[in-house]
Amino acid sequence: MQRIAIIYNPFSEASIIHSAQLTEWLTARGIDVWRGISQECRESPDLLDDADLMVAMGGDGTVLRAARLAFPTSLPVLPVALGHLSFMAEIGPQELYEGMETLLKGGGWHDERALIDASLWREGEHILDFVALNEVVISRRDVSRVINVEVLIDGSPLTTYMADGVIVATATGSTAYAMAAGGPIIDPRSRALALVPIAAHLTNVPSMVLHEAAVVTMALRSRDNSSIAIDGRNNLPLREGDEVMARRSAQVCTFLRLRPSGQFYTQLAAKLRR
Predict the structure, then answer these.
(1) CA 161 to chain CA centroid, nearest Å
(2) Which of 154, 150, 162 is CA-nearest to residue 218?
(3) Start-end ranges of CATH 3.40.50.10330 in the chain?
(4) DSSP secondary-structure letter at 87?
(5) Separation in Å, CA 170 to CA 21, 45, 78, 110
(6) In this model, does residue 262 exceed pLDDT 80?
(7) Domain 115-251 falls in which CATH fold?
(8) Which residues lie below 8 Å from residue 185, measured CB to CB, with a gap of 6+?
């Protein structure tokens, strides 16, 4: 590796300190390092030119921000756990330097994670496209009202949820908002999608694991205030009749890993016991 980018969380003292120490350690070994926050890269994407690796030092939010910067160019991301949950990271600061030694010698493996392509349609007109690592969510904006969301799978009607919202999640996102809403945990190697209603009323259609090629259409059938969020961001308002189509993307997000893939289950159980 010749050049490494380090993304840190400016609101976390631990992230600031550990990222500065890693920068010094790598520089002493002749590695060209850029260190900064995700906003800097969004404003100047060329900062990542010629990078061989991105190290995301923080919680899952920091990893999500790093992944959004990395996956368009297939730049691998090494998540380092410095947050409260850190489901996406396998190593913490105690293992960081031993792990970096292994990576600099050519060790480790690429863990490819599925992404979701989503598009917003209004009155038959294509409005916006999105890419999500975790999930696409349609949810209410008024805390006192539920919304009606008609769901179709591959063009065939499934049900209309009267709920606080509906989630379409990747396997990576199955341990995030989808899990909190009662959805299934999916092996991160899977390309399947999860459909998870949020606090649904009067329905006999529970959370579902969908085929990896499934196309999910969510159509808003109520006038109450609602919005769409992509990985917890955007929060764009929706109108009655708006449709959101979600499917697995042809792109992937690549994490750089050091431990065997089966360690996911051991780490998951430990994190859920917290």
Answers:
(1) 24
(2) 150
(3) 3-108+258-272
(4) T
(5) 34, 26, 19, 18
(6) no
(7) Tumour Suppressor Smad4 (2.60.200)
(8) 174, 175, 179, 268
* Per-residue pLDDT band at 44 (split at 50, 70, 90): very high
Thinking of the domain 3-108+258-272, which architecture would CATH place it in?
A: 3-Layer(aba) Sandwich (3.40)
Query: Residue 116 pairs with which residues in a beta bridge?
Result: 132, 248
Could you say which DSSP state residue 140 is in?
Answer: E
Please identify every residue annotated as catalytic: 60
CA distance 242 to 220: 6
- CA 191 – CA 188 distance, rounded (Å): 8
Contacts 24+ apart (CB under 8 A), 231-236: 231/64, 231/68, 231/132, 231/133, 231/134, 231/135, 231/173, 232/61, 232/64, 232/134, 232/177, 234/130, 236/120, 236/128
Q: Which of 87, 248, 59 is nearest to 176 (CA)?
A: 87
| Mean pLDDT of the 184-201 span | 95
Every domain range in the chain assigned CATH 2.60.200.30: 115-251
Question: What mean pLDDT is predicted for residues 251-260?
Answer: 93
What is the per-residue pLDDT across 117-173, written as a single tens digit (0 to 9) for each?
Answer: 999 999 999 999 999 999 999 999 877 789 999 999 999 999 999 999 999 999 999
Residue range 45-78, pLDDT digits in tens:
999 999 999 999 999 999 999 999 999 999 999 9
> Which one-letter DSSP state was computed for residue 224?
S
For 80-130, the pLDDT digits (tens) are 999 777 789 989 999 999 999 999 999 999 999 999 999 999 999 999 999
Q: Is residue 131 within 8 Å of 114, Cβ to Cβ?
A: no
Is the distance from CB of 187 to CB of 196 less than 8 angstroms? no
Give the orientation angle of helix 93-104 with respect to helix 13-28, to 10 degrees. Answer: 30
